[in-house]
Amino acid sequence: MEASWVRVVSSNNLKGDEQYFLSKEPVTDMAPRLFYARDIKGKTIMSEKPGIAIRFSAKEIGDILCKHSEHQAIEVPHDADTRWTRRKKKF
């Protein structure tokens, strides 16, 4: 079941001033949506957590969507920063 905030945007409808998450299309209805993210150590990973997902501009994500059909652009909600908080690295 998909979260209510998830809005898939086609490559034709990308807006230049918006930010997007990059995700892979779920294989089945029961599979979670995975986002391209950066973990606390700075490595690029696939994660279910949108709070650590990497945000892309329309130009960056447009190039990726043209090359890879299994990827999708997800519109970043306007309240994303208050909805999710990232863990802070402690020294």
Q: What would your notes on this structure say?
A:
This protein has 91 residues and is α+β, with helices and mostly antiparallel strands. Helices cover 15% and strands 27% of the residues. It has two helices and six strands; from the N terminus they run E-E-E-E-E-H-E-H. Strands 1, 2, 3, 4, 5 and 6 form a six-stranded antiparallel β-sheet that branches. Strand 3 and strand 4 form a beta hairpin. It is globular and about 45 Å long. The model has no long low-confidence stretch (mean pLDDT 85).
Rg value:
13 Å
Spans of 5+ residues with little confidence (pLDDT < 50)? Answer: none
**Molecular shape:** globular
The counted number of beta strands is 6
Mean pLDDT score: 85
Chain-wise SSE layout:
Elements: E1 8-9, E2 19-24, E3 34-38, E4 44-47, E5 55-57, H1 58-67, E6 71-75, H2 80-83
Antiparallel strand pairs: 1-6, 2-3, 2-5, 2-6, 3-4
Keywords:
2 helices; 15% helix; six-stranded antiparallel beta sheet; 91 residues
Please provide a brief summary of the model:
The chain has helices at residues 58-67, 80-83, and strands at residues 8-9, 19-24, 34-38, 44-47, 55-57, 71-75. By secondary structure, it is an alpha+beta fold. The longest helix is centred in the C-terminal third of the chain and has 10 residues, at 58-67.
